[in-house]
Every structure is written in structure tokens, then in C-alpha cells.
Amino acid sequence: xxxxxxxxxxxxxxxxxxxxxxxxxxxxxxxxxxxxxxxxxxxxxxxxxxxxxxxxxxxxxxxxxxxxxxxxxxxxxxxxxxxxxxxxxxxxxxxxxxxxxxxxxxxxxxxxxxxxxxxxxxxxxxxxxxxxxxxxxxxxxxxxxxxxxxxxxxxxxxxxxxxxxxxxxxxxxxxxxxxxxxxxxxxxxxxxxxxxxxxxxxxxxxxxxxxxxxxxxxxxxxxxxxxxxxxxxxxxxxxxxxxxxxxxxxxxxxxxxxx
Length: 259
Fold this sequence. Notes:
InterPro entries: CarboxyPept-like_regulatory. The chain is mainly β. The chain has two domains: 27-133, Immunoglobulin-like, CATH 2.60.40.10; 150-257, Immunoglobulin-like (Sandwich). Helix content is 9%, strand content 36%. The protein has one helix and 19 strands. The longest helix has 24 residues, at 3-26.
């Protein structure tokens, strides 16, 4: 047998062994060890953990994905129980854990990444503990430049100023609770003129106003997708959910103009 054929055979055998291991493990994706013990101590051959919301309360029904770092689209799936806990048996190999929560908010469906206590990979035979937290904002440790909050894509109406966008200031006032049920805070923000967006805004419904700071002039705002200007210049908007619009997931599209 030549070298290339030998390598192909070895890869096929390795893949078959992993497939058998995954089939065995999939029968054991279940709630945490009923025997109890220290929840922060790894159990050999298992990954365990807990998912909580931004107030530290357990999150049930969270989808936890244990993904093999070597083989594409090879993973183990489970969901957290009523106490926010999960346990997955992991075959030998290198794995990484991620989690997402799904919510319907103001008629739109959202699929949101949870923050892991660590994004490091682990070996299946040694086991690991991976806890997850629902964060409404903040940069993702495993994906620098990406954020847990939504993105507000901003532009001025074509042919309308002001054009020195760094002097435009936006005020976001929550209308009702945020997506996780918590009370939001009023945010005063400017936008990144290079990327044309305000990143990392906690997902919720907002009444938005804007002023041109040099003259303290109230600007007119509208939903760039299908909106019109209101008499007071304000606009109330939600983020688009998990179905991307203009290739942007969990975004809103805001347009401003001089009065």
C-alpha cells in the first residue's frame, strides 16, 4: 500500500471510530449527574455546566453545542434542564462548547449567543466544566470585534445633511422591558462613521431621537427599511431578529435628516 492510500485509510478509520463514539455519546446527552458533587469540578468523559440569565437566574431550554475541533460539522447537542444545567458525555478528542438561547420578542424571533466562562477547547476523556451567561452587551471573548448586543446601522438620507456625522448624537430610550425581561437604561450614543453603525446596543424596543450637537438642532429619524418621518422627529424601532436583513442579523437600520 502506497503512502497516500495508507493516509486515506488511517483517516477513514479515525472518522469511523469517532462516529461510533459520537453515536454512543448521543445516548447520554442528559441532565447533570444525579449523584451531585462539585459543579465546578470536571468529570472525566463529560462536559457539564449551567446557563444563567443576566440576573444569574437559571435558563432552561438553552441549546448547548459540543463541537469537535478537528472534524467539520461533528457535534453533540443537548438542552439545559429546568435548573439551567446540562451534561454531555464526550468521546476522546478535542472539543469546544457553545450555547444559544432563542426568544420571541415583539413578534420577531431571536437566536442569541451566550457567553462561556472560557472559550478554550478541552479533551473529551478529561472532561470539562463550561458555564454560560446571557449577556445583553459586551465584546465576545471568542470572536473579537463581535458583540452580544445588536447593531444599529446608521446613514443620513441621500442629499440631506448634516454631513459631519461625528457631531450627531443619538438617545435610545427603552420602550418596555428588554429582550431578557430586564429594565433597560437610556443610552446616549454616537456612531462609528467608518463602519456606519452603533455596535453593541442591548436588544430591545427603543424610542430614538437625535441632535446635531454644534447647533443643538433636533434631527428627523426614520426606519430606513420602510419608515417615514414623524412630526416630532423621533422613531420607535425594534431590531430585526435571527432572519438576516441586508445580510445583518440582530440589526436595525436608522436614517437621519436635517429638519
